Amino acid sequence: MKFGKEFAAQMVPEWEGAYMDYNLLKTRLKEILRFRQRTRPPTATAATRGGLKRKLTLYRAFSGLTQRNHTSYNPMSKPNDDEDDDDINQRGEGEGSQSYQTTFLMASDEGGEYELVYFRRLDDEFNKVNRFYKCKVEEVLKEADSLTKQMDALIAFRIKVENPTGWSHHDRKAQMTRLASDVAASAAALSATTPSEARASSKDFQPINLMEAIEEGSMSHEQSSSDGSSSHDEDDAEKEEEKTKNQSNNNNGNVVRLSPLEVLDHVKMNNTSETPRSTIKGFLKVPRHTELKFTRENLRKVEERLKRAFVEFYQKLRLLKSYSFLNTLAFSKIMKKYDKITSRSASAAYMRMVDNSYLGSSDDVTRLMERVEATFIKHFSNANRSKGMSILRPKAKRERHRTTFTMGFFSGCAAAQELTKQCLSVCSFFGFIVLHIVMYAANIYFWRRYRVNYSFIFGFKPGTELGYRQVLLVAFGIAVLALCSVLSNLDMEMDPVTKDYQAFTEVIPLGLLILLLVMLFLPFNILYRSSRFFLLTCIFHCIAAPLYKVTLPDFFLGDQLTSQVQAIRSLEFYVCYYGWGDFRRRENTCTSSGLFNTFNFIVAVIPFVARLLQCLRRLFEEKDPMQGLNGLKYFVTIVAVTMRTAYVLDKGFTWLVLAWVFSAIAAIGSTYWDLVFDWGLLQRHSKNWWLRDKLLVPSKRVYYLAMVLNVLLRFAWLQTVLGYNLVPLHKQTTVAIVASLEIIRRGIWNFFRLENEHLNNVGKYRAFKSVPLPFNYDEDGDKDE
């Protein structure tokens, strides 16, 4: 793979605009190359194209099988900097900032203007990268200070929980003496294993306060001593932490820190959990900060929150380190290309400037990573380094061949079955679910292909997101189970032995539904438990929409449910058919029941009501008027469904007109919202005609086709609302086809919706999730101190 493609593949998607524009600089180099090829003498050009004349080399003197280089070499000589073709000047543009500018000394040469343009663009790219990196490092340094305060509060909290009455003077003196000897022994062992050069350089650092080390050791001594098997790992963690702590003390040697228990006088507990109770308290303006309660349950919650915060912070550091490495490598590659094209030796001088810049010389990120690793291993993984690093650096999921094979086998089994009228009536619910899962698998495939960071947008835990093969495996597995239930039903109908057990054969679809529900709620770590629980959590948040903070996965799932109205009605039919005992008589009396028809209306509007409540919750929290307009859109849809139901119950002209009017308004408003707000298209002044400036799919035709399909399929859904059969098919067949078209429309909508969300993240360089911290510091109290 060429470096340009590898460079693009390893970028942080949300930071794509902050990386060096490698392709643009390659274009500038190609301009230089084309100019040199045009102005090169014909003989030289021919010699270059033809390579060395082989005939001439036959008459050269033989140099021997063991050729020696007779050029004298002086190891003490240094390269002459005057031979470089460019001179690097640094110009400060403001306090704390630094801008780099390259002075090209050969601009008077023929074609020098092309090289001058190249170096100007190169400087612009380097200054952009350097400023962005410095800005992000400053952000993580501030966050590191915040996490340091959180750790101080956590350690003090542990002391209060483990020793609520405090230590006696005798116990504390004995423990302090023992810990002092442990620290001294660790320091001696560390100095014994440290090279002499490192020991000499360590004299520049201020020595660590022994009492501070003892205090910190006393806080976790009981916990560490409870696990004797991990004592060796704990010693390594202690040494690494002491080493990094010495470095931090070099920079902050004069910072006054409170004693451990005094920290608790300046903090309160943050109530970060989103529950119906917290929602009601927020509505009533009840403060979210509560007094500290020193219980083991609260300690567990605090440790869990800080653990997540450290994991997320470590991922930021890893991305920053990758950003620095990739850009430095890119500058090296592009300068080597320049040297090769121009036959100059400018790369050495330019890379010295890169190495001396903040991008190449700052080790803040590396030292922070070492400190975070040591802290996390000691405090959150019981001094087990392998366990701690597996959490901080989760391994990427490997694609397994058995998954692909099983998925292909199930898809073949599902495609080999014939669809019958009985299958259509019994399997319609499972068919809608399978089709939606297949569309989601297609979404994942294209999201990955066009580098849409869907796992970050949805908030999946790293390493647990499913690929499109796993999703297709689930879809075709459900399809095979559904078709097997139909075949078993038909076989038992035709078999003389089981023909008399008609009631039992009718229960087979219900048994399949119960089996799928059991698999969905299964608590064991099988069948993609993390993804199943994530789905159940989002479903519960949709059901209790106004009582939970609305996140993107919640309202995204709510939109999916609005396209599954027919599947929800099928569930209602299951309840009626099996709950009222119609399966024993093998007759369907549900549609003739007024109660069933009433619930049929209620069930149809449940997804839209959930989305309306989500919009109102966001309007209340975010004060965004656009959420009010979005809620109005769902309200009009609810009214349209209500008018349609009234027309079905009473075939009056007034109800027909109202159904037409509100359904048309709902369809037009929803289509406009899809194209403009959800997809970000129809921008008049965009460089892409009536699209948007940034497009991930190279072909513009895809966007125009998607807009046309969205309109057509949206009005196919309108046909279902008005109840007209446009094709000479059975009513249930028509309903199933139109419902399937709505699911396909939703699948198309999903891709462009997340593409637009991803581009919004790219525009804001938003590559991290904010993790709420457990403690809130009283800053005024700190200032008074």
UniProtKB/TrEMBL annotation:
Domain of life of the source: Eukaryota
Compositional bias annotation for Low complexity: 216-229
Membrane-spanning parts: 429-447, 468-488, 508-526, 601-620, 632-649, 655-681, 702-724
Membrane topology qualifier: Multi-pass membrane protein
Function: May transport inorganic phosphate (Pi).
Gene Ontology BP terms: cellular response to phosphate starvation; phosphate ion transport
Biased composition range(s): Polar residues: 68-77
InterPro entries with a match to the protein in the record: EXS_C, PHO1_SPX, SPX_dom
Coiled coil (residue ranges): none
Keyword Nucleotide-binding: no
Residue span(s) of domain SPX: 1-352
GO-annotated cellular components: plasma membrane; trans-Golgi network
Principal location class: membrane
Entry's family note: Belongs to the SYG1 (TC 2.A.94) family.
Stretches assigned to the EXS domain: 591-785
One Gene Ontology molecular-function label: inositol hexakisphosphate binding
Subcellular location per the Swiss-Prot or TrEMBL entry: Cell membrane
Name of this chain's protein: Uncharacterized protein
Region (Disordered): 68-101, 216-259
Record keywords: Cell membrane, Membrane, Phosphate transport, Transmembrane, Transmembrane helix, Transport
